[in-house]
Design goal:
Strand order of the largest sheet: 2-1-3-4-5
Distance between the termini: 60 Å
Number of strands: 5
Order of helices and strands: HHHHHHHHEHEHEHEEHH
InterPro entries: Homeodomain-like_sf, HTH_RpiR, RpiR-like, RpiR-like_SIS, SIS_dom, SIS_dom_sf, WH-like_DNA-bd_sf
GO molecular function: carbohydrate derivative binding; DNA binding; DNA-binding transcription factor activity
CATH architecture of the largest domain: 3-Layer(aba) Sandwich
CATH superfamily of the largest domain: Glucose-6-phosphate isomerase like protein, domain 1
Protein name: MurR/RpiR family transcriptional regulator
Keywords: DNA-binding, Transcription, Transcription regulation
Pfam family, one: SIS
Structural class: alpha/beta
Length: 288
């Protein structure tokens, strides 16, 4: 078995098939995971060992037996397996490690740092450059995100709107979203953000745009995400949850990178635009 995103799909069946060959201590771990994999996904190796009554090294060896290079890889596969199924209540219940207010700031910021680092290590640079090229060539750029993802969509739309004059952010609070993209065509690009729990509406909108011939750029956390299945290229963003609050920091960073990359290719127009803005701001006293 390889350490990659596909492992989570076979993880439970792999544990079951290996069970008879496991040591006594490893069988205790296997039984606990099969019955409580949603909890184990957020346990350290030490905590799991304490819970089932085995040593931390036994937990690590168990992960190795399944073909993972270490326990963190097994944990990541478990998180991938469950993250789209977790309700908000379940996320709250798994936030016991955040009960100490003295460590919350440290843990949350470090989690965001880890997510950015993992995103940087895993993102496809060729897909990123292709996305920039598609944006620059598009007749119209539609940007969408549902629920918390709308924050990132709006953020990217704001900055691309400074650079280009053909940007449209699909608003979920202004009429039906399908009505806003009904004229999408084959010369257009749709940039879609979607993270667990994946929104059906986001997938339906992207699928509709794809059927109309538009190019789809998906920014999501997994190649198994619904919108990725219909995308022309996908930018993978790590968003392992620190608690019941989703980590949108890496998605914001990728949005920044897209805006900057597009802006650098249109920098002469941007300069003229900002010159006009500065004169307007000064005339109307926008800033102190």
């Amino acid at each position: 078995m390889e350490d990659n995103i596909k492992d989570s799909k076979q993880l439970i069946s792999e544990i079951q098939s290996q069970y008879t060959r496991l040591s006594k201590g490893q069988k205790l771990i296997a039984q606990y995971i099969l019955n409580n994999y949603d909890k184990v996904a957020f346990m350290t190796a030490c905590k799991l060992g304490e819970t089932v009554g085995v040593s931390e090294s036994t937990v690590v060896r168990f992960a190795n037996t399944l073909g993972y290079s270490g326990y963190p890889k097994l944990q990541s596969a478990l998180q991938e397996l469950i993250k789209n199924k977790l309700t908000t209540v379940q996320r709250v219940e798994m936030s016991d490690d955040f009960s100490d207010e003295n460590v919350i700031l440290n843990k949350v910021l470090r989690s965001d740092m880890d997510n950015i680092r993992d995103t940087l290590d895993g993102i496809d640079n060729e897909a990123f450059q292709d996305a920039v090229s598609k944006i620059l060539k598009a007749k119209k750029i539609h940007i969408l995100g549902v629920r918390t993802s709308f924050v990132v969509a709006q953020y990217l739309g704001f900055y691309l709107g400074i650079i280009l004059d053909n940007v449209h952010v699909v608003r979920m609070d202004m009429g039906d979203a399908f009505e806003q993209i009904v004229r999408v065509g084959e010369d257009d690009v749709v940039i879609a953000f979607s993270f667990p729990r994946y929104s059906k509406k986001a997938y339906q909108l992207v699928k509709y745009a794809k059927e109309k011939g538009a190019s789809i750029i998906s920014i999501t956390d997994s190649l198994f995400a619904p919108i990725a299945s219909v995308a022309d290229n996908t930018l993978l963003v790590n968003n392992s949850m620190a608690s019941f609050v989703d980590s949108l920091v890496p998605a914001m960073s990728v949005a920044n990178a897209l805006a900057v990359s597009v802006g650098m290719k249109e920098k002469d127009d941007i300069k003229d635009y900002f010159d006009d803005l500065e004169r307007m701001w000064e005339k109307y006293g926008v800033y102190e």
